[in-house]
Amino acid sequence: MTEDIRNKCAHGAQGEELSTQNKVLNTLAGATQTFTPIKQVCAYLNAFHVYADDIKRHVEAYHYCSHLNEDLRQCIIYDSDKPDARLIGVEYMISERNFDTLDAEEQKLWHMHIGEVKTGMLIMPKPAGVPEAAWEAAENKEMEQIVRWYGKTFHFWQVDRGDKLPLGLPKLMSSYLSEDQAPPGLLDDRDLRLGVDRKRKAEVRSYMPEPPPKGDGTKDVWEGRGIRLEAKQCDSRKGGQ
Known about the structure:
Blueprint: E1 9-10, E2 13-14, H1 20-32, H2 36-39, E3 43-51, E4 54-69, E5 72-78, E6 87-94, H3 96-99, H4 104-107, E7 111-112, H5 114-119, H6 132-146, E8 150-155, E9 171-175, H7 186-194, H8 198-204, H9 218-222
């Protein structure tokens, strides 16, 4: 009798370890195929996402972002920066002027980045060998833009509760507005692992202006007005939104 696949787990996901045949095929495909969209990734960001329907839950998010144009970025989100990282979600980032074109209901699905940027919670991990001063200058230029941008984030895989597969409906995610909203030790642990001094980052980013409050949903989430997706059966023959 074949062993139940539910008893198998490889790299945090339900299933068998990759076979030698598939490893060879992966190597061949990687050497011969083009990966043009993936190769447009030009920024690696680290931050924490909070569930928009449960602020007691959070996930460390490793963002790999590309710029579609001057007013929109698109990010693939993983649960680590390792080769076996699980793809857990996506985030779209838009400029303030794009955000201003959205209706009030749509704006509630987006979160601000002001708190993350100004406190040093949102970072661009420094590559090995790059001088600290040079990287700090480059990171600040990136943050000067992000501080005024808004993100719309959905996670498909709830790794924080130990899921071995992406189960259920997508979860809308939000952000921390201040350090005191994060669990004790969470940020210190991240900083230690990635060699980051967020206090220093907050200090050197102090010159960045804070955009005026708008209609995004970040504050609502922290005041108990969260958002949860729910499945509703419909007549698929009729279409509609």
